[in-house]
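Long-time lurker, first post. I've been practising inverse folding by hand and with some scripts of my own, and I keep getting stuck on stretches where the structure tokens seem ambiguous. Below is the full token string for one chain I'm working on. Before anyone asks, I'm not after the true native sequence, just a reasonable design that respects the backbone. If someone could post their per-position residues I'd love to compare against what I wrote down in my notebook.
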């Protein structure tokens, strides 16, 4: 083997190893949450399956770059993450007038209101206002959910190409068999003007969603209402959809746009 071949092979190995290390580092950071703001080395090795020495090396690197910080009980988010969070908040946060519309809907209808935009084969929550009920559906801002199920997906997939529907279906447990169902759901939602889902993604959860349009009239987001199925009787769904549609019209008239939306 020539020196050139050896060098190329070594570079490829280093590239693969580097990518693996980056992924492992993100796996560690992903363990942090509002419910678990501090993580221990034992929790890291238990959740990731990494050897203690490997986990410790990665943690030390994350500390050096400011992505993790030392804590008496373990490790917590570092200052670099706060800088990124501040940047993301400034770009992602929806206007106050949009949040006001959503808050009024949540208070009036008594259920959680979410705003989703499509990104790839997922939808991302960019704003939410929680239900006043103790038992409620909670989706955090930034959460990703698949486009192969759910009321908001049926709204966001309107106008999608056949090739894209196949991509979405391929990511679902049903695979290619989901394409026909997706096509039927999207058509039904377009005819009704709203979409409904029940236990499609989360068991016992029902959602109603309507489109939010952008400057050129294209769907850029879905506005949804979600909660326990027993609080969504058939006779209430029409009323929920009507109220949501009025809220979506107000948000659209405000000129809603988002960095992740196709109309931004």
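-- Answer (accepted) --
I ran through it position by position. Result:
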């Amino acid at each position: 083997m020539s020196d050139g071949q050896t060098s190329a092979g070594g570079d490829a190995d280093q590239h693969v190893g580097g990518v693996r290390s980056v992924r492992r580092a993100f796996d560690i950071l992903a363990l942090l949450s509002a419910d678990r703001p501090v993580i221990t080395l034992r929790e890291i090795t238990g959740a990731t399956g990494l050897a203690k020495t490997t986990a410790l090396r990665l943690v030390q690197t994350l500390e050096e770059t400011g992505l993790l910080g030392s804590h008496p009980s373990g490790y917590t988010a570092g200052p670099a993450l706060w800088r990124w969070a501040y940047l993301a908040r400034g770009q992602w946060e929806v206007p106050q007038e949009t949040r006001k519309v959503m808050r009024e809907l949540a208070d009036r209808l008594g259920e959680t209101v979410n705003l989703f935009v499509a990104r790839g084969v997922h939808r991302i929550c960019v704003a939410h206002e929680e239900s006043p009920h103790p038992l409620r559906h909670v989706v955090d801002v930034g959460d990703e959910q698949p486009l192969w199920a759910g009321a908001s997906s049926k709204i966001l997939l309107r106008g999608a190409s056949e090739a894209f529907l196949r991509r979405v279906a391929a990511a679902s447990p049903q695979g290619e068999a989901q394409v026909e169902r997706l096509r039927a759901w999207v058509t039904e939602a377009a005819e009704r003007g709203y979409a409904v889902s029940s236990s499609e993604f989360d068991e016992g959860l029902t959602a109603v969603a309507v489109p939010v349009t952008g400057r050129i009239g294209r769907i850029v987001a879905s506005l949804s209402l979600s909660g326990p199925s027993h609080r969504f009787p058939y006779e209430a769904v029409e009323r929920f959809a009507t109220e949501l549609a009025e809220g979506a019209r107000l948000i659209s008239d405000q000129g809603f746009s988002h960095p992740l939306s196709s109309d931004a």
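A couple of notes from the structure itself: The mean pLDDT is 88. Residues 3-84 form a domain with the Arc Repressor Mutant, subunit A fold (CATH 1.10.10.10). Happy to go over any region you disagree with.
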